[in-house]
Amino acid sequence: TAASVKTSWSSRLLESAGKVPRATQEEEEALQAYLDTHMGVQFDAASDHFEEVQDLWTLAFPHRAAPPRRDPAWKDLGFQGDDPVTDLRGVGMLSVRLLSFFARRYPAEFQSVSARSMCDFATGGYPLACAGVNVAYMLIDALQLRRSSESVTASTASPKAHKARLTLCKMMKEDAAALALLFCAAFCLLDKEWTARKATYLEFPAIVKVVRQKGMCVCCGVLQSVAVRC
Question: Residue ranges of the alpha helices (H) in the chain?
Fold first, then answer.
């Protein structure tokens, strides 16, 4: 069955388009605690971070043993080079964790998109891991999400981002994984846009831009496709 990411949120976000939702201090603190836990976590070889990367491999390719730290096989998962860590310098471990969430919450849909990562880029494939990094960054940028040490306040955030952030606070009260669910919705939208356009690898940046403009209207307090079918 195709994934459906809480359709009730769609109307909630649509309703918020015309007004700024109110979030309690407790709700805002819950969102900030989530961000402080998961954002800006850079790869640490001394921790279990590489095991998380290997777990993502296993979720994508359950019948193939995860490769060692430096191996050309990582390109099959959509990393750009032999060392997957190189691609994690921007958003850190967040994209790996969001992709792993996607794989566990919606395994059939994740298998569908991960299979595309194995395709020849000339015949419709795209790099799964790099796509995850781009979608994670898109969410961070659209909602102007920051850790406490660099938090964007209501006075400095754009009105659209501030409204969307408050809406996300309310959504997290219903499901602590709200941001991860938005990631799943955005990723499925990217996949749909990619396949509909029969895009090539060179068009990847343009597709990401389209997804932000067309589907990630969270900036305006609206996510047009919270219920996404892969």
Answer: 7-16, 25-38, 49-60, 94-105, 107-117, 128-143, 159-174, 178-197, 204-214
**Greatest alpha-carbon span in the chain:** 51
Residue 224: pLDDT band with limits 50, 70, 90: very low
Rounded Cα distance, 12 and 98, in Å: 23
First-to-last alpha carbon distance for the chain, in angstroms, is 10
- Higher-pLDDT residue of 155 and 182 is 182
Question: CB of 77 within 8 A of CB of 84?
Answer: yes
State the pTM of this model.
0.83
Q: How far is it, in rounded angstroms, from Cα 130 to Cα 25?
A: 35
- What sign has the CA pseudo-torsion 39, 41, 47, 53? positive
DSSP for residue 202: G
Q: The tokens of 4 are what?
A: 């459906």
DSSP 8-state class, residue 123: G
**Alpha-carbon span 156 to 60, nearest angstrom:** 40
CA nearest 131: which of 181, 177, 184? 184
pLDDT single digits (tens) 183-209: 998 898 888 888 888 888 788 888 888
